[in-house]
Amino acid sequence: MGNTRLAIVGLGVITGTQTGRSRRMLVSEAARLAIEDAGLDKTQINGAIEMRAAPGGGDRTNYSDGFPRILNLPVNFYFPIGRGGALASLGIAAAYSFLDRGLADYVVISGATDVRSLAELARARGHRGRPHDLEKEGYWGSPVGELRAMSHHSWMAARHMAVYGTTSEQLGAIAVQIREWAQRNPEAQMYGKPMTLEDHQNSPMLVEPYHLCDVAQVSDGACAFIVSTEDRARDLRQVPVQILGQGFGDVAATLWWDKLNYTQMAIRTARDAAFSQAGITLDDLDAAMLYDCFTAEVLFQLEGYGWAPLGEGGAFAETGAIGPGGSIPINTSGGLLSAYHMDDLTGFIEAVRQLRGESKDRQVVGAKTLMFTSHGGEMLSPGMCSIHASTILGVGR
Q1: In this structure, what DSSP letter does residue 385 have?
Q2: Which residues constitute the domain of residue 80?
Q3: For residue 22, what is the domain's CATH number?
Q4: What would the pLDDT profile of 161-200 be if each residue is shown by its tens digit?
């Protein structure tokens, strides 16, 4: 990042099923909560970005009435951004451009999902699945089995198993430890629903090798946050969460053609840029919020970031390293697998709360430096031809 130091100064979060509330309502309310959390008046907000997931398979038609008008925010700019699960990371990167050039003082970045309540409505009408999981023109469809995200992610987990001997039980160890964290988070959808490895193994097989418990939640919710410069942040209500470094990678660069993406993610350039900007190493992280749409994505990141050598992520997870009491706390809210699915906002929310000391029973003592990652947005399907982002956050640095 450039010379201007940025910080997150306000956070607004909505979780739980939101039947009857549109995405427009949710994204507006989350933004209002974030402004209130920061101790700002809405007249001080002069930039707005809306985070909208845009998966490679297409998206539902977006509403056109933006939340700045709903809240009567005097913004100089407003636009949507997002690709797959990369929402918070791209929102931060975009806001930086305006803040660094003095084109804004406070930028509110907000996004929402209503997939869970719409899926329930679809089921009530006799349909099944998420409302936008329809076959897309030009995509591999039902003749070859590409029906859901798990279809074109599962074969990469299977490939890792074939090449390195990774087992379903090792994927289960990831799911079980992340579920343990969810038992400490009352907002988690799986709160009060502990899981054993036997439970994981006995859960229905959806797409081999993925059991039901290898797959992320379907959720409603919203998150908004305020980004400003560090000098302005010092005078506000909340402890400023510093944005220390960011990096991006994309499988489209080389990995697809080299077939490395069969067992890896585009981590290297994202990791190296983020860590270099922040001036840290892997050992400096107190915790990490890894994008966990499926258990194998966690496995790939354990290896890609260097917690475990290539092919040994499963064995590393089996040691209990990522759960409560482990050497590197991973997804302490319960992640997408057990808390709620709001793309990378799930990890972002928990990272900010940990650094503000607000995570209560799951608080990592002395947390000063955390990372959250972003992932998704396939260019080619089936195939994990996706963006990956690393964002380092900290306090008191």
Answers
A1: -
A2: 6-119
A3: 3.40.47.10
A4: 999 999 999 999 999 999 999 999 999 999 999 999 999 9
